[in-house]
Write a structure and sequence with these properties.
Blueprint: E1 9-15, E2 17-18, E3 30-31, H1 38-53, E4 60-68, H2 76-89, E5 91-102, H3 111-118, E6 122-128, H4 132-137, H5 144-156, E7 162-168, H6 175-186, E8 192-197, H7 205-208, H8 216-232, E9 236-239, E10 242-244, H9 251-257, E11 261-265, E12 270-275, E13 280-285, H10 290-295, E14 302-305, H11 311-319, E15 326-327, H12 328-335, H13 343-351, E16 355-357, E17 361-364, H14 366-370, H15 372-376
Parallel strand pairs: 1-4, 1-11, 2-3, 4-5, 5-6, 6-7, 7-8
Antiparallel strand pairs: 8-10, 9-10, 12-13, 13-14, 15-17, 16-17
Helix pairs in contact: 1-2, 2-3, 6-8
Length: 417
């Protein structure tokens, strides 16, 4: 094994309640029954932070992300209390990025000024579409007018570094509708735009009762034309589903995609921590159901060590989402595995046109980004493990290699934008 280095550290805080569960959503979220009891949950989060703080003592937190669910159901003073607990237990960088996910239909007028005063520096607004009928089909509780009003209030509050979540390939949607949504989003002057395809995730209402969706060719055409429109507007495509104005990439999500570390607090929150002295990378999972999380003792979470055989896939699953790819030196430092263990696979994928060589490492080609699922199958661990701990077979899971399948990015992404 090579030397394992300590990566940057982020904090993810999960708020599991929504006004209504959307029929496409497979996140750990629950319909709010009655009044929101914010105080007990915030107190539990504070105890959770205290219990986990020892394992990251001396490390600086570069970003905080309040995700859900709908964190904007919690009042600004609750967010301030959580940030206060984080500052008391952890070392937050002076310039830490602090993102709050917000639903346009769950924000009181004037609240963004108070969230900013509480310490929020960035907002991710779940617009999804600007077509009223599409929003109804998606089960959203807000209107296009509420999204426009929320964006106006973000600008007025000085929170100009905000993201808009937007979906495409919606029920019955045609290219003109997808492009109209992008144009409407750009008119609100966001700094960042997350652009996801509506996908049918197992266990959701839409999976059980699928709505009529555009076929793969139409979805691909919508993605291509929307991406061109965003590029023309000055938005750089830096991750498979993420576009940003220069300097406005989401630092929190970049840390995920670069295989950085993160503490996870809140019901069902996941974490990943690196321990170089032990040569270990550990994943953590909190109790998923809110009542169980509230009743559990602080620090009562599931821990599992990522095996060396799983590390190449886990790293690539994140890093190959980035259009710039990764440096081999970064792979070595973040996994503790020598680059010689993966270069044969990387070169084979480059020969097939799925990867391109850069000065420091590799990045997905345009073809590789489109067929990212197939690209990643070459890193899936085999049982028993092959030399190097990752799959050397060219056979993908669930299909023949000569019929490459596109990766169409799903709703919400891997990291809660």
């Amino acid at each position: 094994m090579a030397v394992l280095l300590t990566p940057p550290l982020s904090l993810y805080v999960h708020f599991p309640w929504c006004v209504r569960k959307c029929p496409y959503c497979d996140f750990n979220s629950y319909t709010l029954q009655g009044e929101l009891a914010a105080d007990p949950y915030v107190a539990r989060l504070a105890r959770d932070l205290e219990a986990q703080a020892r394992q990251v003592a001396g490390r600086s937190v570069v970003s905080v992300f309040f995700g859900g669910g709908t964190p904007s159901l919690f009042p600004p003073e609750a967010i301030a209390r959580v940030l206060g607990a984080a500052r008391a237990q952890l070392t937050l960088a002076a310039d830490a990025e602090v993102t709050l996910e917000a639903n346009p239909g769950a924000i009181e007028r004037g609240a963004f000024r108070e969230y900013r005063a509480a310490g929020v520096t960035r907002v991710s607004l779940g617009a999804q579409s600007f077509d009223a009928q599409a929003l109804m089909a998606l089960g959203r509780i807000h209107s296009p007018a509420e999204t426009r009003r929320a964006a106006e209030e973000l600008h007025a509050a000085g929170l100009v570094n905000f993201n808009l979540d937007l979906m495409y390939a919606l029920p019955g949607q045609e290219r003109a509708g997808a492009l109209r949504d992008v144009a409407e989003a750009l008119a609100l002057a966001p700094a960042h735009l997350s652009h996801y395809q509506l996908t049918l995730e197992p266990g959701t209402v839409f999976a059980a009762r699928p709505p009529p969706l555009p076929d793969d060719d139409e979805a691909a055409a919508q993605l291509e034309e929307c991406a061109a429109r965003l590029a023309a507007a000055g938005f750089g495509h830096y991750e498979v589903s993420a576009y940003a104005r220069p300097g406005r990439q989401c630092r929190h999500n970049l840390n995920y995609w670069s295989f950085g570390d993160y503490l996870g607090v809140g019901a069902g929150a996941h974490g990943k921590l690196t321990f170089p002295a032990r040569g270990e990378i550990v994943r953590t999972v909190q109790p998923r159901e809110p009542r169980r999380y509230l009743a559990a003792a602080p620090g009562e979470l599931t821990r599992s060590t990522v095996s060396p055989g799983e590390l190449p896939f886990e790293f690539m699953l994140n890093a190959l989402r980035l259009t710039a790819g990764f440096a081999l030196e970064e792979f070595v430092g973040r996994t503790g595995i020598a680059s010689s263990r993966i270069t044969p696979t990387l070169e084979r994928l480059r020969a097939r046109g799925l990867l391109e060589r850069t000065a420091e490492g590799y990045r997905p080609s345009e073809l590789g980004l489109r067929f990212l699922n197939d690209l990643l199958t070459d890193f899936v661990p085999e049982r028993p493990e092959m030399p190097g701990g990752f799959a050397l077979s060219t056979a993908p899971a669930g299909g023949a290699r000569d019929s490459l399948r596109p990766l169409f990015t799903g709703t919400g992404g891997a990291v809660g934008e």
